[in-house]
Design goal:
alpha+beta, 4 helices, globular
Length: about 160
C-alpha cells in the first residue's frame, strides 16, 4: 500500500514539474516579459510552493506564489510540501461532492483582471493561492510528463489565441 502511495506521489510531482517547465520554456514564444501582469499569475514564470494534500482516494494540490521576501529561502522553481490525511476522502474534506474512491479531476484558478489596465491581480497574502487541483488516485495513475507538457502548451495557446 505504501509503495503505491509513493508511486502516485512521484507521478503527481513529476507531472507538476513537467507542466511548469513547459510553461517556462514556451512562454517566451508568446511574450517578451514572462512576469508581465498582463499574463494570469498561474501562467507566469516564477517560483511556486505546491502543497500536496494526500487523502485516501486522491489529492488536493494547492499552487501558491512564493512571496518576494522568501525568494532567498527557495532554491527551486517548485517546492513541494506533502501532507497526509488518513481516513479522509477528498469529497468529504473539501465538501465538493466527489464520490468516495470515485474518478474525478477538477480545479479552480483564481484570475481577477483590472478591466482598465488589462493587468491581472496577484494572489493576496498570506495564502497567495494561484490555483487548486482536485484529482482522484485513478486519474493520477494515468498521468505522464508528456501529458503535462501537452496540457501546458494547450493552456498557453488558449490564453494567447
Amino acid at each position: 500500500m505504501e509503495s503505491e502511495r509513493e508511486r502516485l506521489r512521484q507521478l503527481l510531482i513529476e507531472h507538476c514539474k513537467a507542466y511548469y517547465a513547459e510553461v517556462r520554456r514556451e512562454l517566451t514564444n508568446y511574450v517578451s516579459d514572462p512576469e508581465s501582469k498582463r499574463i494570469p499569475v498561474f501562467l507566469r514564470r516564477h517560483r511556486r510552493y505546491i502543497r500536496v494534500m494526500e487523502f485516501e482516494d486522491g489529492y488536493v494540490i494547492v499552487h501558491r506564489t512564493v512571496p518576494p521576501e522568501e525568494f532567498d529561502q527557495v532554491g527551486y522553481w517548485e517546492t513541494f510540501n506533502i501532507y497526509t490525511y488518513p481516513g479522509q476522502t477528498v469529497g468529504d474534506a473539501t465538501e465538493r461532492g466527489y464520490p468516495p474512491y470515485g474518478d474525478f479531476i477538477d480545479g479552480e484558478t483564481r484570475t481577477l483582471r483590472n478591466e482598465d489596465t488589462g493587468e491581472y491581480v496577484a494572489p493576496t497574502p498570506p495564502e497567495r493561492i494561484e490555483s487548486k487541483t482536485y484529482i482522484s488516485n485513478n486519474r493520477i495513475a494515468t498521468l505522464t510528463p508528456d501529458m503535462a507538457r501537452e496540457e501546458a502548451r494547450k493552456n498557453l495557446q488558449e490564453f494567447f489565441a
